[in-house]
Structure formats: structure tokens, C-alpha cells
Specification:
Layout: E1 3-4, E2 7-8, H1 15-19, H2 27-37, H3 50-62, H4 69-84, H5 88-95, H6 109-113
Antiparallel strand pairs: 1-2
Protein name: Ribosomal protein S13
Family: Belongs to the universal ribosomal protein uS13 family.
GO biological process, one term: translation
Length: about 120
Amino acid sequence: MPFIIGTPTPDNKILVQSVSHIYGIGLTESAMLCQKAGFGVDARGIHVTPEKSQLLESLVDNRALLVGADLRRFQNDKIRRLYAIMAYRGLRHKRGLPVRGQRTHTNAKKRIHFNINVN
């Protein structure tokens, strides 16, 4: 099972689908990357050699997009900054309530369910 950007790609799964499981890469981006790396539409994880996985990683690095752990870290830093400056959005994140102005009286039960007694 080869690893691409720290994400395992199962041997029996279609490669485009496997690459899209990397955080920050969707199906369209994954299809373009696999095509540029020289994989066919029906390529699977078995067909990935160490050289091809390095090629895929270099293609992702050349796109100047954050993916994987770097993207998660960037997003968490943005939310922490909102906490630090005591912005309204930061407080909503902290309390587990909807952030973008959604209604909370009858909706957002999943978002509120675990944080009912937050002070």
C-alpha cells in the first residue's frame, strides 16, 4: 500500500478516488494530477511505484496549494486567531454554535447537541 503525502492508497481502489482522500484535494484536482502523472482512468493503487508516488507528490507541491496536515494547521490557526481577538465568530466556534449566522432556534441540533451547558 503506497503512501502519497502521508495518506495510504489502498491497492484495490481506483487511484483517482484514493488521491481525492488526501485532505484538500477533490475529485477534479485528483483526476488532473493523475492524468499529469501518466496514470490511466482505471489505474489502481497496485500500479503506483515509488517513482510515480514521488512524481504525484512533486505535482502537488508545484501547485502551491496547502494539503494534508499543513491545510489543517492553517485552518486551526485561523480559528485560534479568532478566539484570541475575541471576535464573534471565534466565540461561536468556541461554544460549538453555528458560525455563519444560521438560525439556532429550530435548526443546528447537531452543532448544539454536545455543548448545551457551555458557560
